[in-house]
Design goal:
With 218 residues, the protein is an alpha/beta fold. It is built from 7 helices and 9 strands, in the order H-E-H-E-H-E-E-E-E-H-E-H-E-H-E-H. The strands form 2 sheets. The protein has a 7-stranded parallel beta sheet, sandwiched between helices. A two-stranded antiparallel ribbon has the order 5-6.
Length: 218
C-alpha cells in the first residue's frame, strides 16, 4: 500500500498540467470505487455525450450488474458490462465483466471492446493495466485515464504506457480516497497530470469535455 507522497495539501501536486481534450475516459478503481464512481460520473453525466467511459472496477463477478445499475441510475446513461466484440459508442458507460479483462481494439477504423482470459495482473482480473495499455494503443494522446481509490498498484504500469503514448492521467487525492494505494502509486511515480479530490476531478474533466462539445458543435 502506498500511503506517502503528494496529496491535495500540496498545491504543486494538484495543479493540472498536460491535459488535452479526450476522446475516451478510462477509469480504474477498487476499494471505495462504487461510491467514487457514482459521485464522479453523476457530476460528469451532462458532459458525456461525445465520449465513451470504460471502467475496470475490482469486484466479484456477481456485483457487476448491481454496480452498473447503480451508476445508470446516477447518470441516466446506458451503463452495463461490456459485450465481447461490440462497437464503442459515445455517451455510454462500459464496465469490464467479472473475471474478464477488458481491452480496446480496432476493427478496421472502428474501436471495439474485447474480453480477454489472460492471467491476472497484480492478482487482478479484470486489471486496470490491461485496459489502459489497450486504450493507449488505440487512442494515444486522445485518452484520459482516471485512477480512483483502491488498494494495491494495479493501473501503474498501464498509466505509464498511456503517458508514453501522449495521454494523460488524473489521480484521486489521498484525503478523498478510502485507500490511497492505486492513485498513490501513480502520484509517487510522477505520472499524474493532476492529483485532485473526487469532486474536483469532475470539475476539471467536465471543463475538458465542454471543449470537445464546443469543437463538435463548431
Amino acid at each position: 500500500m502506498h500511503d506517502e507522497g503528494p496529496n491535495a495539501a500540496n498545491p504543486a501536486a494538484t495543479k493540472p498540467r498536460g491535459l488535452t481534450t479526450p476522446r475516451v475516459l478510462a477509469i480504474g478503481a477498487s476499494t471505495g470505487g462504487p461510491q467514487a464512481l457514482s459521485l464522479l460520473l453523476g457530476k460528469l453525466s451532462p458532459h458525456l455525450d461525445n465520449v465513451p467511459v470504460l471502467i475496470v472496477l475490482h469486484m466479484p463477478p456477481d456485483f457487476t450488474d448491481v454496480v452498473s445499475g447503480h451508476i445508470q441510475r446516477a447518470t441516466g446513461r446506458v451503463t452495463r458490462a461490456a459485450r465481447n466484440g461490440e462497437k464503442i459508442r459515445p455517451g455510454e458507460i462500459y464496465f469490464a465483466p467479472g473475471n474478464r479483462h477488458l481491452k480496446v481494439a480496432r476493427l478496421e477504423r472502428t474501436p471495439i471492446l474485447l474480453h480477454c482470459d489472460s492471467p491476472p495482473e497484480n492478482f487482478c482480473r479484470p486489471a486496470v493495466n490491461v485496459l489502459f495499455r489497450s486504450v493507449a494503443q488505440v487512442y494515444g494522446p486522445s485518452a484520459l485515464g482516471i485512477v480512483l481509490t483502491g488498494m494495491g498498484i494495479d493501473g501503474l504500469e498501464g498509466a505509464r504506457v498511456m503517458v508514453e503514448a501522449g495521454g494523460a492521467i488524473i489521480a484521486q487525492d489521498k484525503a478523498s480516497s478510502v485507500v490511497w494505494g492505486m492513485p498513490g502509486a501513480i502520484a509517487q511515480e510522477g505520472l499524474a497530470s493532476a492529483i485532485l479530490p473526487i469532486e474536483t476531478i469532475a470539475v476539471h474533466v467536465a471543463a475538458l469535455l465542454r471543449k470537445r462539445t464546443a469543437g463538435v458543435a463548431a
